Amino acid sequence: MVQKRDFLYEGKAKRIYQTDDENLVWIEYKDEATAFDGLKKGVISGKGYYNNQISAILFAWLEEKGIPTHFVELAGEREMIVKRLEIIPVEVVARNVAAGSLSKRLGLEEGTPLQRPVLEFYYKCDELHDPMINEYHIATLELATSEQMDIIKKRAWEINELLTGYFKEKGIILVDFKLEFGIHQGEVLLGDEISPDTCRFWDAESREKLDKDRFRRDLGGVEEAYREILNRLKGGR
């Protein structure tokens, strides 16, 4: 059984610990929440629990569908064991419906279905506030090789198609979501998390927001929204 060891570092949403296996790390999900590049901060009761459980369910399901991820196993209500990754500093955002920054940039009314899904890339760099970049920027900054980007794009399209259908069956519209990838023993794996923190989920009938936008926009009912997503993934409606 894998043992939790020394604390490594803390991010906005998670704490990372070493384990007695150099190829694995221990992740603890936090209740703290941030938005608008850290300008807004707060606590969402139970967020760590919900995001850990939701991510575990989705990672395991994607693995069954042939998408390699860093997920190994749950280690508690708020903790999981994952493969140690060398993170590729390119965040991938898949968009199916106009919302958030895309609505503002392209002048599209929020909720407008896109004629075809869109992939966007962002430089994972806090000092630069994660600017949007393209593949020319990625190449000149040597953030990822062309071969790695080919794999990332292929996987992102596959994940979008899989999850869009999966959530549709749960009565949820997958509006958009962020993905991160990393290298583990030479292989590109899906990492980070898939949760209401990193996805926009709307109820298919009411269009009610079931994600972190409730925190960003002071809509209230944040914990209830996270709980609803987990409930639906477990089969409830």
**Number of alpha- plus pi-helical segments:** 6
Please, how many domains?
2
- The N- to C-terminal Cα distance equals 36 Å
Helix content: 25-40%
CATH architecture of the largest domain: 2-Layer Sandwich
Instruction: State Rg.
Output: 17 Å
How many β strands by DSSP? 15
Verbal overview:
- InterPro entries: SAICAR_synt/ADE2_N (IPR028923), SAICAR_synt_PurC (IPR033934), SAICAR_synth (IPR001636), SAICAR_synthetase (IPR050089), SAICAR_synthetase_CS (IPR018236).
- Keywords: ATP-binding, Ligase, Nucleotide-binding, Purine biosynthesis.
- Pfam families: SAICAR_synt (PF01259).
- Belongs to the SAICAR synthetase family.
- GO terms for molecular function: ATP binding; phosphoribosylaminoimidazolesuccinocarboxamide synthase activity.
- The structure is a single chain.
- The chain has 237 residues and is an alpha+beta fold.
- It has two domains: 4-83, Phosphorylase Kinase, domain 1; 86-220, ATP-grasp fold, B domain (D-amino Acid Aminotransferase, Chain A, domain 1, 2-Layer Sandwich), CATH 3.30.470.20.
- It contains six helices and 15 strands.
- It has helices at residues 47-64, 100-106, 135-140, 146-169, 213-216, 222-233, and strands spanning 4-10, 14-19, 24-29, 32-35, 40-43, 71-74, 79-83, 86-87, 90-97, 113-123, 132-133, 172-179, 181-184, 187-190, 199-203.
- A hairpin with a 4-residue loop joins strand 6 (71-74) and strand 7 (79-83).
- Helix 1 (47-64) runs parallel beside helix 6 (222-233).
- The radius of gyration is 17 Å and the shape is globular.
- It starts with a strand and ends with a helix.
- The model has no long low-confidence stretch (mean pLDDT 96).
